[in-house]
Specification:
Elements: H1 2-19, E1 23-24, E2 39-43, E3 56-58, E4 63-67, E5 88-91, E6 101-102, E7 119-122, E8 135-141, E9 155-158, E10 161-164, E11 173-176, E12 181-186, E13 189-194, E14 199-202, E15 215-222, E16 227-234, E17 243-249, E18 254-257, E19 275-277, E20 282-289, E21 293-302, E22 307-310, E23 316-317, E24 324-328, E25 333-337, E26 349-353, E27 358-362, E28 374-379, E29 384-389, E30 393-397, E31 412-413, E32 418-420, H2 423-428, H3 437-445, E33 453-454, E34 469-472, E35 477-480, E36 494-497, E37 502-504, E38 541-544, E39 549-552, E40 564-566, E41 574-576, H4 579-582, E42 587-590, E43 595-596, E44 612-617, E45 620-625, E46 628-637, E47 640-649, E48 667-670, E49 675-681, E50 687-693, E51 700-701, E52 714-717, E53 722-725, E54 732-735, E55 740-743, E56 759-764, E57 769-776, E58 782-788
Parallel strand pairs: 1-2, 7-8
Antiparallel strand pairs: 2-30, 3-4, 4-5, 5-6, 9-10, 11-12, 12-13, 13-14, 15-16, 16-17, 17-18, 19-20, 20-21, 21-22, 21-32, 23-31, 24-25, 25-26, 26-27, 28-29, 29-30, 33-58, 34-35, 35-36, 36-37, 38-39, 39-42, 40-41, 42-43, 44-45, 45-46, 46-47, 48-49, 49-50, 50-51, 52-53, 53-54, 54-55, 56-57, 57-58
């Protein structure tokens, strides 16, 4: 019996040992004894902390280098803490104990040591506490992410040393091997670092047109043509939303749009790293994030003729959201590290042979750690790859040239393969049967009155946090956009056709990279295809029955100030955006044609959150912004949309608002009396309602009674001449003849945290029913759709 137990224990121990990732985490790194096909941890003393950095090998000094600022991301990191490590850090792999060290300018090694170097704070997150070093209050870092920030770099001087302000690098860097310098294009600035002299230089080159906000792109150096090549990325303020192929002439320090042979270029993508193959003199681009899906295609660019070609190998690595890559000079191969494999089979190492157009899986399990961002480069001197994993560690790897991993379980993909972002939602709509319209029409016609009915639509639509909805009242189609703040971040205008009980998408949802899904502010302009990025949309959009258009008024994007912008793909006219001159952007969407027009200038208001609300009427769109009331006239001519805004009223009734309900100040349209209605919930717990004529006039208090709860949406039921509101698990009805609110005696869906800012209430005049959209937390935050057909004659109240 004891022997059986011992055998079982031995088997368990062997299983645990063999199941561990093959990654040596030694206390002392030994370069001479380093094995092949194994990731070896270099040091735990100083893990890489520079946000979205890129590691580069410097042959002139035989060091690896990273540049940036040590901060966390989202809610994770010490934004408000003074940096303890300098902008530039280097690691010499041949040292006895290799570790990342501050690389101060010559002459400053002593005075700037021990975190005493002059510094400044991030614009969005000021440093708190006592400052213990020279400090520049007039200088700030700008990092792409939350708090309305984009990458922005400028040069400043501290104690006689010129330095660039810091930003996220991604793959916007390459090594100019002719001049032994590191070339960056980050935050709209083109600059270089001399590792021998430890000097920064601003090249003062004019950025590629409309690309100052560009992020997630890639730069690679062509030593034959002595030029850097830029491609991809996102957040560019042009109709395509990224950088098509651009060239930087390293002799003249000028950017120019590349003249591409036959006009063929890869589809735009982000977080895809270009690599120069010295042996074949080609630039290779693999996969990346198309904002809709992760790709597995392979492209090659001939820098001499500037011609792109899709290679179409027999198989390729499985698509990933991001990766690291480098050229191995000794082997004449490009090595790729795919981080998400560490959460699957651990085998994320591949090589690509350009000559054979062949991908090969390689041995060497990655450390089983979270890899939100990774970067690697190759030292030809030591034939070694150094992998830098943000906030996790630094690892070294040597490729055993002839050893191919023949593990049949490793995931591969044909080059046409892709992985959808938000796959559970997208896949849920793939095989939905064609709706039986007659059956649905019969169901809608015979809905029981004063009862909540679940639509039970097929598929799974994710809710959109802090976002309302509107309805095309001419077709009975709900239009739903918004999201953000750790919720859904797709930028689709999802449409629900009541007559078909189906959700559909006019275009595939585009997503920012996953590390930005926690942001709630649109700082990003627009996605590929010129569609506004997701953000909380509150009551900022509405269907206009007069023009048959949806009008969307998102936040002001202050980061666009002074930036080049192209809105027309045909003329490519360049506009310098001026907030005072152009105002916030307005988007116009034709829901019937599924067409989104380029953004429109001229909006005179930009209040946030619940202080702005829109409503459509037969006389055009109306917008309440703080205490101001505007009328919008939409026109569409020659495929160009315009909005003319007119100020109608400068003052709102002086009423205090319960801070908890400050977002609940919507607009409604009473079609019987041809009046606008606006609402507020007082600190005393009463609904306040005010009316205003469609033209000039003043707000008048309706002095309604009975409303002791409230919600963001108030709708007008034209058939029953009443207002309807949906607080948590309640329906409130106000008879417009008596102005008295009553709570309907009705059983509502139980959905904790599914009401409030997670829901929407609409009136469908085509089918004469209320459409309730309620977030179902227990079902993965599926947006449930329910109906109520109200009959005041048989209604019962609480």
């Amino acid at each position: 019996m004891k022997s059986m137990v011992s055998c079982k224990l031995l088997a368990i121990c062997l299983f645990l040992i063999l199941s561990q990732p093959i990654c040596a985490e030694s206390k002392v790194f030994n370069l001479k004894k380093m094995p092949s096909s194994v990731w070896v941890e270099v040091s735990r003393k100083k893990i890489p902390l520079k946000t979205f950095h890129s590691v580069k090998y410097l042959s002139a000094t035989d060091e690896f280098m990273i540049w940036g600022k040590d901060i966390g991301w989202g809610w994770e990191g010490p934004h408000g803490v003074q940096s303890s490590r300098y902008d530039v850090e280097t690691l010499k792999i041949s040292d006895k104990n290799p570790v990342w060290n501050d690389s101060f300018p010559f002459g400053k090694e002593k005075n700037w040591a021990n975190a005493k170097f002059p510094d400044w704070s991030c614009k969005s997150h000021r440093v708190s506490g006592k400052i213990n070093r020279p400090w520049r209050k007039d200088v700030h870092d700008f990092f792409v992410g939350g708090m309305s920030a984009v990458n922005q770099v400028s040069f400043t001087e501290t104690e006689g040393i010129a330095r660039p302000t810091r930003a996220a690098v991604f793959h916007h860097v390459c090594v100019d091997t002719i001049r032994n310098r590191v070339l960056y294009f980050v935050g709209g600035c083109t600059f270089v670092y001399d590792p021998v002299k430890r000097i920064w230089t601003d090249l003062k080159a004019k950025a590629p047109v409309a690309c100052k906000n560009l992020v997630w792109a890639s730069i690679v150096y062509d030593p034959i043509g002595d030029k850097a090549i830029l491609f991809g990325g996102g957040m560019a303020l042009n109709p395509w939303g990224g950088a098509r192929t651009w060239v930087f002439d390293c002799k003249t320090n000028k950017w120019s749009r590349a003249k591409i042979k036959d006009g063929l270029e890869p589809p735009l993508r982000g977080n895809a790293q270009m690599v120069y193959d010295e042996k074949n003199k080609l630039v290779v681009l693999f996969g990346g994030d198309s904002q809709v899906k992760h790709l597995a295609d392979t492209w090659a660019l001939d820098p001499a003729s500037m011609s792109w070609q899709e290679r179409k190998p027999k198989t390729a690595p499985y698509p990933d959201s991001h990766y690291a890559a480098t050229y191995l000079k000794k082997q004449g191969l490009i090595l790729y590290v795919f981080p998400n494999y560490s959460n699957q089979d651990g085998q994320g190492i591949w090589t690509y042979d350009v000559s054979l157009n062949q991908w090969s899986p390689r041995k060497g399990k990655l450390p089983r750690k979270t890899m939100k961002w990774i970067s690697c480069d190759y030292s030809p001197k030591d034939d070694l790859i150094l992998l830098s994993v943000w906030k996790q560690g630094t690892y070294a790897y040597k490729l055993e040239d002839k050893v191919i991993d023949k593990n049949s379980k490793r995931k591969t993909a044909p080059p046409s393969r892709y992985v959808s972002i938000y796959k559970n939602q997208q896949d849920s709509f793939l095989d939905i049967p064609t709706p039986d319209k007659d059956k649905i029409a019969d169901r809608l016609k015979n809905l029981p009155v004063n009862v909540v009915v679940d639509s039970k639509y097929p598929g799974f639509l994710k809710n959109k946090t802090w976002s309302g909805a509107t309805i095309d009242s001419d077709r009975g189609v709900v239009i739903f956009t918004g999201g953000g703040h750790s919720g859904y971040c797709g930028n689709d205008f999802a449409e629900y056709a009541v007559a078909e009980n189906r959700w559909s998408f006019p275009w595939a949802p585009h997503f920012m990279p996953s590390y930005l899904w926690g942001t709630s502010v649109t700082v990003y302009g627009w996605s590929y295809g010129m569609r506004p990025q997701s953000q909380h949309s509150y009551r900022w959009y509405a269907y206009d029955p007069e023009s048959k258009m949806v009008v969307y008024c998102p936040r002001l994007m202050a980061n666009m100030q002074g930036k080049e912008m192209i809105l027309d793909e045909k003329t490519k006219k360049v506009i310098i955006y001026d907030i005072k001159k152009h105002g916030p952007l307005t988007w116009i969407y034709d829901s019937k044609r599924k067409k989104l027009f380029p953004p429109v200038f001229g909006r005179p208001f930009a209040d946030l959150q619940g202080h702005r609300a829109l409503i459509g009427t037969p006389k055009g769109i109306y917008a309440r912004s703080g205490k101001f009331l505007y009328h919008g006239k939409i026109t569409v001519k020659s495929e160009k949309a315009e909005v003319k805004w007119t100020l109608l009223e400068k003052g709102m009734p002086n009423v205090k608002v319960n801070k908890r309900y400050r977002e609940y100040q919507s607009l409604a349209y009473d079609s019987k009396r041809k009046r606008l209605l606006t609402f507020a919930f007082s600190p005393e717990g009463d609904i306040k309602a005010f009316e205003h004529p469609l033209g000039k006039g003043v707000w008048k208090d309706l002095k309604c009674k009975g409303g002791k709860d409230f919600a963001r949406d108030v709708i007008y039921d034209s058939v029953n001449d009443c207002l309807v509101c949906m607080p948590e698990e309640k329906i409130l009805i106000m008879d417009c003849k008596t102005n008295v609110w009553k709570e309907l005696d009705i059983e509502m869906p139980v959905a904790p945290n599914g009401y409030g800012v997670e829901c929407a209430l609409l009136y469908d005049p085509i089918h004469q029913l209320y459409v309730m959209m309620i977030s179902e937390v227990k079902k993965g935050r599926k947006m449930g759709v329910y109906f109520i057909r109200f009959d005041p004659k048989t209604a019962k109240y609480k």
